[in-house]
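Structure in, sequence out. Go:
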């Protein structure tokens, strides 16, 4: 939920402080991009679980048949 705080524009709608000539409004949005990516990556790694999808054996034709009803 933290990345959604950037959507509350009254909190960030100002010019100062500037960074590399960019007003605060723009550079803070750009700064949140890598932060948000890192947060999503952490959640992905922690919630993906340890189970790998089961893969049928290469010679098991019946398991590969979508219409077999199994």
């Amino acid at each position: 939920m933290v990345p959604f705080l950037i959507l509350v524009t009254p909190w960030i709608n100002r010019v100062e402080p500037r960074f590399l000539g960019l007003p605060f409004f723009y550079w803070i949005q750009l700064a949140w991009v890598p932060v948000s990516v890192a947060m999503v990556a952490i959640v992905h790694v922690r919630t993906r679980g340890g189970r790998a999808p089961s893969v049928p054996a290469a010679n098991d034709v019946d398991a590969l048949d979508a219409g077999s009803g199994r």
